[in-house]
Structure formats: structure tokens, C-alpha cells
Please model this.
Amino acid sequence: MDSEQFREAAHAAIEDIISYVKELPTLRVTPSISPGYLRPQLPERPPEEPEPWHQVIEDTGTKIKPGLTHWQSPNFMAFFPAMTSFPSMIAELYSAAFSAPAFNWVCSPACTELETIMLDWVAEIFGLPDVFKSTAAPEDGKDMGGGVIQGSASEAVVVSMTAAREKHVRLALEKAELLHVDEKDCSERSRAREDLAASIRGRLVAIGSEQCHSSTHKAANILGLRYRTVRAAPGNGFGLTAETVKASLCEIEESGLIPCYITLSMGTTTTCAVDDFEGIAALKKEYPDLWVHVDAAYAGSALVCEEMREDLNAQWLGEFDSLDMNMHKWLLTNFDCR
Model:
């Protein structure tokens, strides 16, 4: 496909997308097909010759669209709102054109800097404390903040829990004066360093509410951490309370283990519960090394409305260590922006 063919194909695709968006209200939301419907409609082997673009668009209409669940439909009421928009689609086109594996600054400086600045903007429009911005100066023992786009909210939980795990390992190594020992040499102190790190990791415990998303338990499995479930309180709208969290922390410590991480929810997926941020913020002062992550994937987008922030306990977010949310819920961006 040369540039002129691309222009023709792109115009045709855009017209097809516009037609799809216009007809969404008239379409059945869920497909009336059976599992395995697609295989008989496609060649058994990968094609060796290209098809003309008009054939690809036709196949999209006859083979793919009939198997879609139309999340963008105004009649879609399941799970959560996941609304995209025309500007978001155009931005995705630019992203596909640049196609930069920007895994660090030097690989594509504009990508890294744009991500950093835009996530500072997100913190601003959500009314988050300055500690969540990359421009925040370290203070009171806290490193400066800043956001990163992950592949999913579940991935963000894994990243946060990894940071919590390694924070506790680092604290133990510092206390034993082994932090700066070269882990690659073959000395006795190097082996002692690795043995201590492995010992600490084996005692660490992650905590989550019975109502929190399954990603917390899965993250603990991925990272090799123990996991404890804390019962949610029906009288608190199925949110975690400081009292139940404190009881769990005490039980873990009495077992000779180390509570290192907890997920708090700003809108659980089952009941949209919001945990007791105020009480747990006070409790964190007793456990300053406990990493507190706020999973705001479900309801965090509502922070854009100032009148919702008090109901979501947003005034306490600055007391915690990390937060994730999904821009693709309510905020008119495509699904890959989280």
C-alpha cells in the first residue's frame, strides 16, 4: 500500500466508522451468534496474496461487526461506561503512525515528556494533591510524584505492589548495612544480601477487601506474596473500615509476618463501595511502611466533578502512596488509555 492507496483506504475506513457510530442506537447490543462462529468464515490458512481494501471493509461489516458487543451503544448498560470519541480515534491514528516503542526518554523524548505532562494535567483536573504530580518537590520523606500510563488498572496494581515489596526489602537491607553490597560478586556479604532479601520477601503479606477487584490477589500470586482478605463491612456500604484493617494487620504481625501492601477501593466493581479513607489514613500513621494503593478504576473518573470529591473521600488521597484510574470510563478516551 503506497501513500495514495493509504489515503483512499483511510477515507473509506473513516466513512465506515462514521456510519457505524450513526447506526449504533439501532443495533442489537449483544451479538446473536454462537461460540466459534468466525472460524468457518475465514480461510483455513493465512492468505499469501493481499486483498483490496474494499474487500477488507466488506469483511469487517459481514464477519466482524455481527460478532461485536457494542459497548459504545446508548443501550449498553453492563459493566461500566466505556465511551470513546472522534478526537480519541484521531489521536489513536497518530499514535499508530508514530509507532514509537518509547520505553525510556531517549527512545522518543516527546512521548515520555507528553505522558508526564498530560498525567500532571489529569491530577490537576481531578483535584489530586500536588504530591501526585511530577513537579512536586520531595518533602516529609516522600519522593516526588508523577503518573505513568499502564496497560490496564490490573497492571497498575502489580506495579504498585512490586514497589511495596521492594521498599520493604530495601528497608531490611539498609538496616543490615547490606543495601550497597554488589549483588553480582561472589563474596559472603553478597550471599548474605540475597539470603536476607529472599527471607524478607517470603514474609511479606498483601491485603485486600473481599469486595476489591481480583487483580490484587492475582498480583500477590504473580509476585510471590502471601495474601489476606479483609471482610468488608455491610454497615459501611461494604467498604473497608479502619477497625477491620487494624485487626488484620495485628493478626499478620502476631504470625511473625510483615504487612507490606493494601488495596483500598474508590468504587468496588460489585457495589461501588468506597473504603474508609479517613480512618485508614489515620491508621497509616501507625504503619508508616505499609504501602497503601487506591484502586479508583471504577469510580475515579468521577473526580473530574468537584461536587463528587467529598463523597469519594478524595480529600484523604494525599495520605496514600499510589492511585490508579481508567480514563476510558466516562472521559471520552479509547480503551487503551488507563
User: Anything to note?
Assistant: The first strand starts at residue 204 and ends at 209. The chain has a mean pLDDT of 91. Residues 153-175 form the longest helix (23 residues). The radius of gyration is 24 Å.
